[in-house]
Amino acid sequence: MRRLSVFLAALFLFAVPALAQRTVVSGTVKDVNGVAYAGGTIQALLSLPVGVSGATLNGAQIAGTTPRVTLDNTGSFLMQLPDNAVVQPGGTQWTFNVNISPGAPPPLGTGPQTCSATLTITGASQSVSASFSACPALGNSSGGTISVSVLPLTCNNGSLYQVTGSLRVYSCSGNVLSPTDGTGSIYAIDYVGVAGLGAFRICQATYNGTTTVTSGASDPPFTAAMNGWKYEGTNQPCAGNGGTLSSTLEVSSTTTITFVNAHQITLSSAAAGSAGNGSTCCYGILGPKDIGPQLQNFFNAVLAVCGHTGILYDGGGLVGNFISHANPQVCGAVGGFDVNQQGYTIKGQSQNSTTLFMLDTLSCAGLPDAILFGAANAAQSVQISDFSVDGGGNLTNVNANCGSKNIFRLGNASLFANIGGLQWGNVIGLNALAIGGVFTGNIENVQFFNFGNTCAGLGTGTAGVLTILNLECSSPGGATLNITGGGSVVNSVGSGWANVAGGAALTVNAGSGTFNSKGDIITGGASGQNGLAVGSSAVVNLDGDTITAGTSGIVLNTGGTPGIVHLKDTSVSGTGSGISGGVAGSKLFDECGNTFQATNTMANIAVLGTCSITGTTITAAKLVLSAGWGASAAWTALTGNTQLVQGTITNTGAGQAANPTITYTFPTPFLVAPDVCTAYQVGGTQPIVAAAEFLTPSSVTNTGVVFTYNGTPTVNLTEVIQIRCGSI
Question: To 10 degrees, the CA torsion angle through 462, 467, 473, 478?
């Protein structure tokens, strides 16, 4: 941004030869208390001698005003100006005008402020910091700025606080700290401090019941600076394959470490079990300390004022407690409160660079709302984005009082984006994301792997529109998406839903909800699992999806009221049935381009449309002629596929007899027996007579039909037969 500002300043100022003399001007703007004018702007104006109307540089007219340049978080700037010693006529100077608005509001702040200085600029470079080191105060604190290592939970009203090494200043009012820069941004690093960060994971830990932990060559190296760090380890593979889903806790997070070398540490107490053989991928998470209490303080500060944004740090941190709030400022709340107020925002640096590592010490006793950044009565217009949560493979060893609790929760008009969730609490029934209320919002670019028992659930009574873009979810427990809200509409695009242990991968339950899916992959992995379960009165529209399952790809209408499924360009398969279930009145619409497997259990399911039953070219093997056509009778000139085929029978060989048959096995099976199957003689050398023109169908199923010719073929003559099968 600074380079862009310099470029623009130069671009607006000069239309002069490349060799013109200019000075690179730098500076830092601070108030009398040393507080940076962060986020303010500075502009330079050329001051001319009295009576002079313009100025030139190397003979070219120059503009007298630069565009405004924004001061960075330290109050610093950089720009390029014509050298006053070269500008003609002589005697010119540059006047610098600084402005910050709205500034910190009264009574603690002084509101908008300005500061200026007129200087002679000359030489290759020049700093003007000395002229801007005592600008008007940004705060009214009589005691000056209090320097602290981390921001306190309580503060002195009227005082300003600044974390040592931080660029931000916070003012205290009503015992609540607020940023003075007017942005409404609260930084977690100011509450946690840099000493609490640096946590990371290793994937190739070997425990073997001793105090020695060896990491893999590809794991991040240990250093001597990690002496005394906390360590937690499980036998769960980082990749989620090759290990038990029960995930034994090998090393508790009460354990500390001693550095041995880049890939070996010793533990303060021995590992509880035996895991890892040098090649097995086992989890280990380590960091300097548990920063959970500081993050709770940070979250309290975010909720103190409506619309504040909480910004998480760049790096990893260990968290051993829930971060939740029981009675925040009522912002964006529902149920009689002011829903027009903006809710809060929690934002990390990116999904790959900000990570919360959850410790086994976490208990949900007294949990007021969701485990992470949940706030009772304040779920409306919430934005949570750009970080990851890693449970260290701790799938079961989470306090039992966390069973069936929510990790995250959202209300109406909310955004949940760029979030990663990995290997935490799925066996005890944690729900990754609960969505409630009259909800309209977005979930975007989210990846959950063994993270909670259900990835996302729309609660009973929910109505509204939820848009899901690129949510990848793999759960070894319950349904990855569980829609129970009456009247809700869920639009999912490019997402993946996979369940590897029990139940259906995706469930749309009773309540007249609608699920629209485009380009999703729905997978029910093991035997006994289904891909998509459709409950009573639900409507499901699938376009370009792929569904596979250990039992049935789609189980339609497991409840008592008929529902509807529309399929387009979708592949459905299961090791048992592709499609099964249903109550009387259930409907499945084939809207073309679908691929179905041969085995489907379609009782009580009405199929409307057969346009997907195409694509396999007819062969003589699918049209078996009985002996009555002649001993060597055969087909020629066969064309078409399944629903419309045509070919010529030549009645060769001896043995022509009355009423020969054609046993037609459909190249592509129908889901249910077609409504209509007809066969006509439309040509050939065998005379067409009324009694024999129409072949009589019988034994019609979803896989084939038998046609009877109502006459006796004549040796060596031919019949051109046309067959049509399909729905009305």
Answer: 20
